[in-house]
Design brief:
The complex is a heterodimer of chains A (460) and B (468).
Chain A (H helix, E strand, L loop, with lengths): L11 H6 L17 E4 L5 E6 L5 E8 L13 H8 L11 H8 L3 E6 L4 E8 L3 H13 L5 H20 L10 H6 L3 H4 L6 H6 L2 H11 L5 E7 L3 H12 L22 E7 L6 E7 L8 H12 L5 H9 L7 E4 L12 E7 L6 H18 L3 H18 L3 H15 L4 H11 L2 H11 L5 E8 H10 L1
Parallel strand pairs in A: 2-6, 7-11
Antiparallel strand pairs in A: 1-2, 3-5, 3-6, 4-5, 8-10, 8-11, 9-10
Helix pairs in contact in A: 2-5, 4-10, 11-17, 12-13, 13-17
Chain B lengths: L4 H6 L9 H4 L21 E4 L5 E6 L5 E9 L13 H8 L9 H10 L3 E6 L3 E9 L3 H13 L5 H19 L2 H14 L11 H5 L3 H11 L5 E7 L3 H12 L23 E5 L5 E10 L7 H12 L5 H9 L3 E10 L4 E10 L3 H17 L4 H19 L2 H13 L6 H10 L3 H11 L6 E6 L14 E3 L1
Parallel strand pairs in B: 2-6, 7-11, 7-12
Antiparallel strand pairs in B: 1-2, 3-5, 3-6, 4-5, 8-10, 8-11, 9-10
Helix pairs in contact in B: 5-10, 11-17, 12-13, 13-17, 14-16
C-alpha cells in the first residue's frame, strides 16, 4: 500500500478540467494488503502492512457479545469486558494500562451484540509488550472479588452517565431493540439491569472467560508498521502456547421481519425537546440486500444532501436533525437480527405523525421512482470516500479487519465492500425500500418530555 | 458500552492510587519496549499570497484524499459581542447555507459528489472552515471552499431556520448536566473575559440579524488574517497554484478585527451548585485560570496535567475510577488558548459520593505539588504524550488541524515538530513547581450540578451559592 507505492501526485490541471465531474476515479480506490494465517490453536491472525507512520493498530475480536450472555445476567458480556482490564495472575491490576500508556499507546474495548473488541494503537516500539498483554489476558484472568465489585460500581456509573442521567437515555439504540425484537437474545438490555449486574459472581466470570475467550474464538489483527512475516511470528511467539478451549454453540437468534407495526410513546423526565426513533428490521449478513440497504440509508439520511435532511430538517423544517444507525454497529458489522434506525429530534409544535408521514412519503418515492443516476452516483462517491476515511487510522483499520474476519470468516471482505456499494442499482433500492422500510416492519418510539406529555394528556 | 464514550462526554478532559507507577513491579516475562524510531516531523512547504493569505502544504501519499483547513484569526467566539454569545458558531454554520452561485442544497450535493464535505465551526480564537475530498476532486473542492468563504449569501430563510434550530438545540443542551456545568465553570474561571461566554443564549440567538452576520463576515473573514493548510495527495506546487487561482484575487477593505485581550491568570474562586432535581449523579467541575499556549509554562503544564488527569493511567482516573469506583471517568484538561488558558477537571459521580469525590480530587491536587513525581511515572507520561503526537501524525487531517490550531493560538509552524523533544526535556522538579503553582486546592473554583440533597456533602469545600 501507501509506503510501497510510487507517489502519484494529482495532476491538478486535469482536476480543474473535470470540475463538473461527480464520479470517483479508480485512483481514489483504497485497497488494503491483507494477509491471513490461522495458528494451530485456532487463533486467526490478520496483518495489513503500511509503513507510512511508525505506528501500529491492534485489535483482538472475540466472537461473543450480548446475544450470548446468560439469561439471568443481562449486561454480563459488557461487565466482563471491563474485567478484562483488571489484571491477571502475571500482570496485576493496573499493569495493563500502565504498559500501554508507557508505550505511548491508547486502548479501549467495546461490547456489541455479536462481538467484543479490544483495541490499541501505539508507536510500533510498544507492539511486543502489547501482544504479550493481550495473550496474557486471553490465557487467564485474576478472578478477583475486589475488582469485580469495583467494576460493578464503574459499570453502574457508566449506565448512569450514558443512560439514566441523560435526556433520551440512549432510547434509539437500547429501547428500540427491546421493542422491535421478539427473541430474548435480541431484545434484552445489553447494558443490563442493576440487579443482574450486582448478581454476577466470580464463577460467572471464570466460566465466561473459559467458554468464550479461547484463541479459537478470537481474531488478532495488526495494521501499520509491521510486515506479515513479523506479525505472524510475533503472534506465534506470544499466543501460540495458549490451548484451544471448547466454545458453546451460538444460540439460535434468527427471527423474521415484523408483520405489524410496534409503536409506543415514552415519557422522558429530562428531555426538553421531543424525539422519535424508527427502527426497521433489515436483511441478514451476506444477503444480496445488505449493500442496497446501506446505500438506501445514505440516500435517505446520509448527511446534509440526503432526502430526509433536505425534506425534514430543511424543506418542512420539522426536525432538528436526522441520523441513521445500524443497531450498535455498521451496515456490514453484524451477524444476527439488526435494525436500521432513523432518529430525529423534532420541534415541539410538530405532530409525530406528520414526521412519520414525511418519512413515509420519501420512502414511497424511492419505491415508486427509484433514485436518479446523478443522485445515486454522488451518494456512492461519498460512501467510497467514507469507506476510505474509516480505514485511515491504523486502529480502525486493524479493528475493521478483525471484525470482518470474525463475522464474515474472511477479512478480505473489507476490500469487496466498495465494489458491492458500486454495484447497487436504482432497482435494488426500490426493492429493498419496498421490502424492509414498511409500516408493518417498523417499530416507533415517540419520546416526549414528561411535561409535554402531561399537557397532551390533559388536552385529551 | 465503551471506554471511549467518556471522551465524548467530557470532551477535552480526560489512573493508580498512591505511587502505583512505582509500586507495581512489571511482569518478568513482559518484553521490553523496542527502541523508538526517529520522530517523523511534517515537512511544510510555505508561501504567502500577495493579499496576505498564508498557505502551508503537507504533501502525503498515504490516502487518496486531500484535506483543507482554512483558519481565520481573531474571528472566533472571543470576538463576539457580549450581547450575542456564540454568534461566531452561527456565522460559521451559515457559510455553507448559500453562496452567490448555489443554494444550501446544491452546496451539500456538490460536496457529496466530490466524495467529501465542507464544514465550518468557531473556536475561541478563530473561525475554521475545512473541506476534504477524494484526491481526484481536490481542485474542484478547493473551488467550492473558496466559493462559500468568498461569496456567502446569508439567505434570510436560512438565517431564520438556523436561529429556530439553535433555540431548540439550546433547549436540548440545557437538559444535559455537562452543558450547564461547562457554562458555570467557564464563568468561574474567566469572569468577564470573552472566553467565559462561548455558549449561546436565547437572547443572543434572537439578537442575530442578517446585517450583523454580514458585518461580522466582512470584518473577520479576510485573506490577511487567514491560513490555508493543505494536506494529502497533492504536491506543494500544485497546491500553491490552486490556492493562487481560488484566493489570489481576493481583496478586502477596512481594518482587521482586533486581537482578544489577555485573560487573567488568576481569579477569585467561587463555589456554585446548580440544582437538577432528581439527578442520579453529580456533575463535578473544578477549575482555575491558567496560561496561554505561548507561555513559558505551557509544556511543563501540559506534562503535569497529563500526569494528574490526562489518560487512563492518570492519577485522577486511577484513584476515582479504578480504586474507588466513584465514576466512569475522571480527568483534567488544560485548555491553552491565544489569550489565556484554563485547567478544568471533571467527573460525574453517583450522588452518595459527591463530597468524597471532591476530597479525592483535592488530595491528588495537593500531592502533585507536595511530592516529587517518580522517574518511572514521569517517563510513562512523557512517552504517552509523545505517542499521542505519533498517533495524530498518522492522520493527515489531524496534522492539518493541529497546524491550524497552533497558528490560531500563536504558535509557529515548527512547533509541531518541536513539541515532543520539548516534552522529553521536562524534569521532575519542574512538574512539582508547576503542581504547586497551578494545583493548590485553595485556588480552585468548584461547580456541582446535581440534586439539592447533595449540597450537605459540600460543607468543608466552600460556601456554595445556588444558581440557575
Amino acid at each position: 500500500m501507501s509506503a510501497l507505492r510510487t507517489p502519484k501526485f494529482l495532476p491538478f490541471l486535469i482536476g480543474l478540467a473535470l470540475s463538473a465531474s461527480t464520479f470517483a476515479a479508480d485512483s481514489d480506490r483504497f485497497a488494503l494488503p491483507i494477509a491471513v494465517k490461522t495458528l494451530t490453536n485456532g487463533l486467526t491472525v490478520v496483518v495489513s502492512e503500511d509503513h507510512s507512520a511508525p505506528v501500529v493498530g491492534i485489535s483482538v475480536v472475540y466472537k461473543v457479545g450480548m446475544r450470548s450472555e446468560p439469561k439471568n445476567r443481562t449486561g454480563f458480556a459488557h461487565l466482563f469486558e471491563h474485567l478484562m482490564f483488571e489484571g491477571t495472575p502475571s500482570a496485576p491490576e493496573g499493569t495493563f494500562d500502565k504498559v500501554i500508556t508507557g508505550g505511548g499507546g491508547r486502548n479501549n474495548g467495546s461490547t456489541r451484540p455479536d462481538f467484543t473488541n479490544y483495541i490499541e494503537i501505539a508507536p510500533v516500539s510498544a507492539l511486543e509488550p502489547i501482544l504479550w498483554l493481550e495473550a496474557d489476558r486471553m490465557t487467564t484472568l485474576d478472578f478477583n472479588e475486589k475488582t469485580l465489585k469495583n467494576q460493578q460500581d464503574v459499570v453502574k456509573e457508566e449506565i448512569r452517565v450514558n443512560v439514566k442521567n441523560q435526556p433520551y437515555g440512549g432510547f434509539m439504540w437500547i429501547d428500540i431493540s427491546q421493542q422491535a425484537f421478539s427473541k430474548w437474545e435480541n431484545n434484552h438490555d445489553g447494558y443490563g439491569s442493576f440487579v443482574d449486574l450486582e448478581s454476577a459472581k466470580i464463577d460467572d466470570v471464570r466460566a465466561f472467560h473459559r467458554d468464550y475467550y479461547g484463541p479459537n474464538n478470537a481474531v488478532l489483527a495488526l495494521a501499520g508498521d509491521v510486515t506479515p512475516e513479523q506479525g505472524f511470528a510475533l503472534a506465534e511467539r506470544y499466543f501460540g502456547k495458549i490451548a484451544k478451549r471448547d466454545t458453546p454453540k451460538r444460540p439460535e437468534v434468527d427471527e423474521p421481519l415484523n408483520t405489524a407495526e410496534r409503536r409506543i410513546t415514552q415519557s422522558d423526565p429530562l428531555a426538553q425537546v421531543p424525539a422519535v426513533a424508527i427502527g426497521y428490521k433489515i436483511a441478514e449478513r451476506g444477503s444480496a440486500d445488505q449493500a442496497p440497504i446501506a446505500v438506501l440509508a445514505d440516500v435517505l439520511a446520509g448527511g446534509d444532501a440526503s432526502r430526509l435532511y433536505q425534506g425534514l430538517v430543511k424543506g418542512k423544517t420539522m426536525a432538528l436533525n436526522i441520523d441513521s444507525l445500524f443497531g450498535l454497529t455498521g451496515p456490514f458489522e453484524y451477524d444476527g437480527p439488526t435494525l436500521l434506525t432513523l432518529f430525529a429530534l423534532y420541534k415541539p409544535n410538530i405532530k409525530v405523525d406528520d414526521v412519520l408521514a414525511e418519512i413515509d412519503a420519501q420512502i414511497a418515492q424511492v419505491v415508486k421512482d427509484g433514485v436518479a443516476d446523478a443522485e445515486l452516483a454522488r451518494v456512492k462517491t461519498a460512501m467510497l470516500a467514507d469507506w476510505n476515511n474509516s480505514l485511515e487510522s491504523f486502529l480502525s483499520r486493524a479493528d475493521t479487519l478483525a471484525k470482518y474476519q470474525a463475522l464474515w470468516g474472511d477479512a478480505k471482505v473489507a476490500n469487496q465492500v466498495p465494489g458491492w456499494i458500486q454495484a447497487v442499482t436504482s432497482d435494488d433500492l426500490k426493492r429493498v425500500a419496498a421490502k424492509y422500510l414498511t409500516v408493518a416492519n417498523r417499530t416507533v418510539i415517540d419520546r416526549k418530555p414528561a411535561a409535554m406529555l402531561a399537557t397532551d394528556t390533559e388536552k385529551k | 458500552m465503551t471506554k471511549s464514550i467518556l471522551a465524548l462526554l467530557i470532551g477535552a478532559l480526560i489512573v493508580p492510587s498512591v505511587n502505583a507507577a512505582d509500586a507495581a513491579v512489571m511482569p518478568k516475562e513482559l518484553p521490553a519496549y523496542a527502541a523508538d524510531k526517529p520522530l517523523p516531523v511534517p515537512e511544510i512547504a510555505k508561501r504567502t499570497l500577495a493579499n496576505g493569505l498564508t498557505v502551508w502544504v503537507v504533501a502525503r501519499d498515504a490516502m487518496p484524499r486531500v484535506d483543507y483547513v482554512l483558519a481565520f484569526k481573531n474571528a472566533g467566539l472571543a470576538a463576539d459581542d457580549a450581547t450575542r454569545p456564540g454568534f461566531a458558531s452561527t456565522l460559521a454554520g451559515l457559510l455553507s447555507e448559500g453562496s452567490e452561485q448555489r443554494d444550501s442544497k446544491a452546496i451539500a450535493e456538490t460536496a457529496q459528489s466530490y466524495g467529501g464535505g465542507v464544514a465550518a465551526f468557531a473556536s475561541n480564537d478563530g473561525l475554521i472552515v475545512s473541506a476534504d475530498a477524494l484526491a481526484s476532486n481536490a481542485g474542484p473542492m478547493l473551488g467550492l471552499l473558496a466559493e462559500i468563504v468568498r461569496q456567502p449569501s446569508f439567505p434570510e430563510q436560512e438565517i431564520a431556520l438556523a436561529k429556530a434550530n439553535a433555540l431548540q438545540g439550546l433547549k436540548a443542551a440545557e437538559a444535559q448536566p455537562g452543558f450547564r456545568a461547562e457554562r458555570a465553570i467557564l464563568k468561574a474561571v474567566y469572569g468577564e473575559h470573552p472566553y467565559a461566554r462561548t455558549q449561546t443564549t436565547e437572547a443572543g440567538i434572537n439578537a442575530i440579524t442578517r446585517d450583523a452576520l454580514v458585518a461580522a463576515y466582512r470584518a473577520r473573514l479576510r485573506p490577511d488574517q487567514a491560513l490555508l493548510v493543505v494536506a494529502g495527495r497533492i504536491d506543494a506546487n500544485a497546491a500553491f497554484e490552486l490556492a493562487q487561482q481560488r484566493f489570489g484575487d481576493w481583496q478586502v477593505e477596512g481594518k482587521a478585527a482586533a486581537a482578544t485581550s489577555p485573560s487573567a491568570s488568576s481569579a477569585t474562586r467561587s463555589f456554585v451548585h446548580l440544582e437538577r432535581t432528581g439527578s442520579v449523579q453529580s456533575a463535578l467541575r473544578i477549575g482555575r485560570p491558567a496560561v496561554a499556549a505561548t507561555d513559558a509554562d505551557y509544556i511543563a503544564l501540559r506534562v503535569t496535567s497529563t500526569i494528574l488527569g490526562g489518560g487512563f493511567s492518570s492519577r485522577l482516573m486511577q484513584n476515582l475510577r479504578e480504586d474507588k469506583g466513584y465514576t466512569y471517568g475522571a480527568g483534567l484538561g488544560y485548555r491553552a488558548q491565544m489569550a489565556g488558558g484554563a485547567l478544568i477537571a471533571a467527573a460525574d459521580v453517583r450522588n452518595e459520593v459527591t463530597g468524597a469525590a471532591l476530597g479525592e480530587f483535592f488530595a491528588e491536587y495537593k500531592r502533585i505539588g507536595a511530592e516529587v513525581v517518580s522517574a518511572s511515572e514521569l517517563d510513562m507520561n512523557k512517552r504517552y504524550i509523545a505517542g499521542g503526537y505519533l498517533i495524530g501524525n498518522q492522520l493527515q487531517g489531524a496534522v492539518a488541524g493541529s497546524l491550524a490550531n497552533n497558528w490560531l493560538v500563536g504558535l509557529p509552524p515548527e512547533f509541531l515538530g518541536e513539541f515532543v523533544p520539548k516534552v522529553r526535556a521536562v524534569d521532575a522538579a519542574q512538574v512539582q513547581a508547576i503542581g504547586k503553582k497551578y494545583f493548590a486546592p485553595e485556588q480552585q473554583s468548584i461547580v456541582v450540578v446535581g440534586d439539592a440533597a447533595v449540597v450537605a456533602q459540600l460543607k468543608g469545600y466552600g460556601t456554595f451559592a445556588d444558581a440557575k
